[in-house]
# Entry
Amino acid sequence: MTFLPRTAVEHLRLKRGSACLALALLVSAPAAAQSPKVGDPPEASNMRLVGFNDLQGRSAYQPTIHHQGNRWIAYIGHHGGTDDIPKPINPITGQAEFNGTSIIDVTDPAHPKYLRHLPGQEGTYEGGGGQMTRVCDGKDLPKGDANAVYLLRTFGGAAHEIWNVADPANPKLVVRLDGLKDTHKSWWECKTGIAYLVSGVSTWRVRRMTEVYDLSDPAKPVKIREFGLPGQEPGSAGKVPTELHGMISTGPEGNRVYFGYGTNKGGVLQIVDRNKLINGPKEPTPENLRAPVVGEMEMSPLNGAHTTYPLGKMTIPQFASDKFASQRDMVMIVDEGLINECQPGEARQMIWFVDATVEAKPMVVSSYSVPEESGKFCQRGGRFGSHSSNESMAPVFFRKLAFITWFNAGVRAIDIRDPYHPKEAGYFIPSITEATDKRCIKVDGKDQCKVAIQSNNVETDDRGYIYVVDRASTGLHILEVTGPARAIAGLPAN
Amino acid sequence: MRRIATIAAAFGIGAAAALLFYLAPASTGPATTIRPVWTETKWPFPMDQWGEGKAFQCKAADCGAELNLYIRPKIGFCSSTTGVADDSELDRLSDFDFMNGATVAFGEGHAIDVAWMKGRLRAYAIRNQVRSRTTAISIAYNNDSDALVATVVVNDGQPAAVEPIVIAFLNGEVVRRWVATTLGL
# Structure
């Protein structure tokens, strides 16, 4: 692979949009090719490309899709820039800007319109940018400005920020919570304003832990408490438990917060009583950290918990006739693969389904992994393994299809109607472009680099569109399900 | 004195000997007369998320105290930007499970250099040891985002006295060659 000078790359990016849509029509089965090439068609089954945006060539992490008035707006968090392009040019302003947040009007998903790039923290890769996004309407928040729309985002690892994005093309900073050492994938309850912020408070023994905030009035954040696994708190000694990755709350109705610790190793699923967490004793002592915990499951040390997605009570088809426990309380855990090309240091990362009907004793009952041999993914370049799931609980896909990013194996649509027997219903592996960044491993002391898609994060909207973003700077792909996968979701045939 | 009181409270009377041993003036003998001989031994720990590493032993007659050193990589577990910047990061990386008991740091750690890499070292007292004069050293250093974590269990020796021996061994050909192979350098 020859890397073109930056100006040439930008030129090609501007010309690429229409070509990508044309390529979408050329769909093939998974190729046995070792490393994809520019010009190769996407690989797909029961999913198809609807629209594309190159995100100005910025490495992307979390997309949040928000129904804002009569528009649909995508807020997409970015990692920092690359060594080759640490500060990409924003074609709208003509300025070089550190990666931050892309704001895109996706009302017409076939023609996404880039509205604004909101720069983030200086730095490359995970050392900069603004990876995380959550959005709440002011009219939903108990003390919010009814005319405002609030974007909660990270500013590199150093801070959380709230912006008023009522006019998404002209965001206004509302507040910043800074002085942190590593932020990440937070959760914000729009109806209560309670936020679970993945932070790095300097006195804690881990880079990431939880700060619980009342953001019901985003302009006046009120800290409720700090939280983590016992042994992580200030003043403790000895072995440091696995650090936090993220959490999902079911709000006051469900009264549970599902915390995931571990990323790719030493995973822990922690089920917490939300009310006790918020209203219980707040001093971070081991006793107080244990008090709200209703269940905890240590995974195999070989796997981590990037995303812990509660599916709630589901009728399990094979138990449907049972007079006892025919419904089960299910949680999906998604690991994150970190290592390129299946190299030493990491076991295969995948997704797990946990039966947490008895909350104190959750148990893994099934798993799903993309068959490596189906695409020779360990040889394609970059990471191969699961990373993240959609986190929307909109009815269109909830408890029917889960979308999981799998780095160089693209995004996978998993039929989860029977979570004891999950199965693949479709997939889409986007094409690489001239903007796709290389991924390297060391061979005999030298970098051996390949270019492959690195589907990083995914989100869905209420309409049934799927938004996949690329860690290797390829951009945003807007997809829809087709054929049998579409039937699973109950969407009209297209 | 506050540190001493903290350790004493954490360990109880049973480990008082270890604490006093640590606080005693360091012998000058080992630094000038010892001839370290390190022998590779079988990796003694069960499989965990980091897999197996290398184990080495230096007998008391050769190192002034019996040293059991365990080293393994933790791939992608370190910040390539900040490295092992402080004791919090060292504690996060450390293999406390290898120390055969609960640990309490004797004090703050300090920066070290190993070959082209930088890192940090800290000494720990071990609770519930049959041998009350057992201590441990944890060392972590990094090559980009990959950490190398060494744990040294010290029997009848002072961490400060054996530290130069350990650092010299980590800088030696055996470990450097293994690091290069393991990290694909």
Observations:
- Residues 3 and 72 of chain B are 30 Å apart (CA to CA).
- Chain B touches chain A at residues 10, 48-51, 73-76, 79, 81, 88-89, 91-92, 94, 96-97, 102-105, 146, 180, 182-185 (CB under 8 Å).
